[in-house]
Amino acid sequence: MKIQNAEFIAGANEISKIPKYNYNEVAFTGRSNVGKSSLINTIVYRKNLAKVSANPGKTKQINLFLVDNTFILTDLPGFGYAAVSKAERQSWKDMIYDYFTKREKLKLICCLVDSRHEPLDTDLALIEWLENNNKNYIIILTKTDKISKKQVLERKEQFENFVQYCTHCLEVLPFSSVTEDGRKELLAIIKREVGQG
Ligand code: GTP
Ligand code: MG
After folding, report:
1. Cα dihedral 95, 116, 50, 87 in deg (nearest 10)
2. What pLDDT does 79 receive?
3. Under 8 Å CB-to-CB from 165, ≥6 apart: which residues?
4. Whose CA is nearest to atom 24 of ligand 1?
């Protein structure tokens, strides 16, 4: 599946400053450094569209990228970035939940968790919130290139067990921006959910 074009169209640290578009949206969320910006670049095959950094806390605002003039991918700041104040962490968190609540064209939320680690409290709280607020989401297990296939499968099973009674979780998908594991599947899910499938 090919992507012809991807462009940055809006970025802001307040929801009210982001224009409303007629395009359906898919958002990427998860803790700082989990690989959100890298994943967006991998999806659209553009190395530096979304800014990536080895240091957590790179993405400090909400950034919207328009893909093929048909749908929007939204890069969100990470949860729980330790090097900023508690107040700033809280304000990012509020902004992200505000985004989930207010964007009417938001069709899917991709929750990224590091496949190497046990889920964090913030990951579980987010999943619970999405369920309770009737938002469709998928769980993406990132950086699968760093562990064995067996470990990936075990992590996937752990999450599938965890969400077995969740009605809004559409998929638990392993992904790697290095090997492109899961890219094709993710693009198919995105296109389906934005109505371009
Ligand atoms: P914030 O913007 O700080 O919230 O981080 P982010 O979630 O956008 O993470 P980002 O994409 O900036 O990646 C963080 C670090 O992880 C960078 O050093 C990336 O190169 C690395 N990384 C991202 N995805 C992968 C992956 O699939 N495999 C490996 N090995 N490294 C990855
Ligand atoms: Mg980022």
Report:
1. 30
2. 77
3. none
4. 35
